[in-house]
Amino acid sequence: MTNDYDGSKVDLERFLVRYLAEERMTRRQLLQRISVVGAAVALAPIIAACATGGASATPATSSAPPTVGPTVGPTVSTVPTATPEPTPLPTPEAELHIWNYADYMGEGVIPSFEKKYKVKVSTDFFDTYEGMYARVTAGQTGYDITFPASTDIPGLVTIGKIQPLDLSLIPNRVNLGAEWANPGYDPGNTHSMPYMWWTTGVAYDTARIKETPTSWTALWDARWSGHIAMLDDQREAFAAALIQLKFSANTVDEAQLDQALTLLKQQHPLVRIYSVEDQTYMAGGDIWIGHAWGSDIYTVQQKKPSVEFYIPEEGSVRGSDAAVILDGAKSPVAANLFINHLLDAHVSAENSNYIGYMGPNEAARQFISKDLLDTPWINPDKAIVAKLQELLDLGLDLDKYSTRWTELKAGI
User: From residue 285, how far is each of 188, 202, 217, 224 by CA, in Å?
Assistant: First the structure.
């Protein structure tokens, strides 16, 4: 008997029967599927089984893990997947309330934010830093954003008076210089963003003092008795003494603080005034040499060019203010977006050019005025920066400074 099947022909009927049995499908159901999806798709598993010479039409289960990727439909060519739409920003609140120093923000900063986000911004100014800080610690100020000194950030976090930032709304933080991206007072900038920073040093009137002083000791020089000013700031004043003595400006060692107090007592009879109004006393004629903040003296020089400033060779203090969102803020989305706005390179540069302070924004440097960048105490080189100390929150140990400061001011 002759066998007409020579291995080159495929018994479609056999594979069709097997496929229908495995899929528990009748011929009528197969015909209905063909009418819906077409013969090519409906018969594809049967044709594939035939091509393998008798393998089951149902694929064998594999032990390999599935690969993750876009699902491709049964078409000849792959359809490109669309780029996912970015997550939309949450809608900011209609109003934002800011509490700040006077003249501490560029004139166009708020209008540009209002135009971009359609948020109405109102700003009030505090009379003194101490008054602002007292109200913040008491709570319920009614404001969304304010600008405390970096030294006070840890304490405000501890007592829950400032809320964590939503860093997803502050992508401009990538513009921060490396030294500001993870500050000791607020690791990871979780509760604050650096705003402006400054140096502390010595200002003097070249019309009165003909030599060029370079040390803290000039503020102890008896030749200038009655014409010396010191900042009325216990941490800054003690820093001037402690750094001369080669101690940390943040020491809590009782013996070291006693040595610093002794040095400040030696200076006390020479001092005409203790005041934080360094712009006022250096612009007048009674003070020839004074303890001062560099950015303030940059402003004084515009009216009185004979005033100079230097960072003492022994080292000095670097201070900074930070933007924070207060506990109980009614507009947290708008507040986070405004802090992001402050970190925009052009906005940060506008603030620096207006105020005379350097911001922590590395990307802004290209837009800052050359005069400001060329001022050595505003934009000190790395060797000077390495000798600057940031004043830290001392917690209860601050009382060690306060009691000695009271003793000094009492003239004991």
Answer: 45, 16, 21, 13
String of DSSP letters for 300-345? HHHH-TTEEEE--TT-EEEEEEEEEEBTT-S-HHHHHHHHHHHTSH
* Contact (CB, 8 A) for 408 and 261: yes
Radius of gyration of the chain (CA): 36
The C-alpha atoms of residue 172 and residue 195 are separated, in whole angstroms, by 13
In order of their start, the domains of the chain are: 12-51 (no CATH), 95-193+319-363 (3.40.190.10), 198-317+399-409 (3.40.190.10)
pLDDT digits (tens, 9 = 90+) for 173-208: 999 999 899 998 999 999 999 999 999 999 999 999
pTM value is 0.70
**Is the predicted pLDDT of residue 58 greater than 60, yes or no?**
no
- Stated length of the chain: 412
pLDDT tens, residue by residue, 269-291: 999 999 989 999 999 999 999 99
Task: Enter the tokens of residue 258.
Answer: 């006693």
Is the CB of residue 212 less than 8 Å from the CB of residue 337?
A: no
- Rounded-to-integer distance, Cα 366 and Cα 217, Å: 37
Q: Measured between alpha carbons, how far is 165 from 274 in angstroms, rounded to an integer? A: 37
Token readout for 229 is 């000013």
Rounded mean pLDDT of the chain?
85
Query: Alpha-carbon torsion 279, 280, 284, 290, what sign?
Result: negative
Calpha distance 125→101 (Å, rounded) = 5
In whole angstroms, give the CA distance from residue 361 to residue 349: 8
> In angstroms, what CA-CA distances link 147 with 79, 174, 277?
52, 20, 19
